[in-house]
Design brief:
With 218 residues, this protein is an alpha/beta fold. It contains ten helices and six strands, in the order E-H-H-H-H-H-E-H-E-H-E-H-E-H-E-H. Helix 6 links the parallel strand 2 and strand 3.
């Protein structure tokens, strides 16, 4: 399948379009440490990357036995948005890559819509997607379940088998595969082996993406 055969390219946002993951995970680690569960940024990458905030709270309870404070989610979100408004850059090479992709595109993220609008506007990428932004934050099931990607495909009028997903997290790759889509795993900051083992076509330079889409499943 070449890029002209794709009906839709679905992008994750954080870590794929905008270079927000180091900031977001640092703040998550800071808040958890302040609340009595010492964690590093690297710990948060490992356990929370790609998940909705409600799923992060569940992971804290089930994996760490930590009951998040009532204001935990709001505290993390507010501090993260404040930090991202001050300093956020696009993922290297993404603007040029998007300019070379001639098929419809949208964003399907675990983050809230306000976060997507904030980071995509600040990096000059928002207009690329004509407000075709979809969030798993309000859904009953987040990634690794396929719900957000299937929802995005329905809204955009595309068949799942004709959709390509671009993800950087293990749960995101798992969600795309579960949706019956072809997944390209961006591993600049992620575990390339884990993404590949989950079924993604792995790459580390965003400028390679248009060529990978042209090659499709080959």
């Amino acid at each position: 399948m070449s890029d002209m055969d794709w009906q839709l390219i679905i992008f994750d946002c954080d870590g794929v379009l905008v270079d927000s993951e180091p900031v977001s995970n640092r703040i998550m680690a800071d808040v958890l440490t302040e609340n009595g569960l010492p964690m590093t940024t690297e710990d948060c990458f490992e356990h929370f990357l790609g998940r909705t905030m409600s799923d992060c709270v569940r992971v804290l309870a089930t994996r760490f036995g930590h009951a998040a404070a009532a204001d935990f989610a709001d505290d993390v979100r507010q501090r993260t948005l404040a930090a991202l408004r001050e300093a956020i850059e696009p993922v290297p090479g993404i603007a040029a890559a998007l300019a070379r992709i001639p098929v419809p595109m949208c964003v399907a993220s675990s983050g809230q819509l306000v976060k997507m609008h904030t980071t995509l506007r600040a990096t000059g990428l928002l207009s690329r997607f004509e407000d075709h932004l979809f969030s798993a934050a309000g859904m009953a099931r987040g990634k690794p379940h396929p719900d957000i990607f299937l929802h995005a495909a329905r809204e955009m009028g595309a068949e799942p088998a004709s959709c390509a997903v671009v993800e950087d997290s293990l749960v995101g790759v798992q969600a795309g595969i579960a949706a019956g889509m072809t997944v390209f795993g961006y591993a600049a900051l992620s575990d390339a082996h884990a993404l590949s083992a989950a079924g993604a076509h792995v790459f580390t330079d965003m400028q390679e993406l248009p060529t990978l889409l042209e090659r499709g499943r080959s």
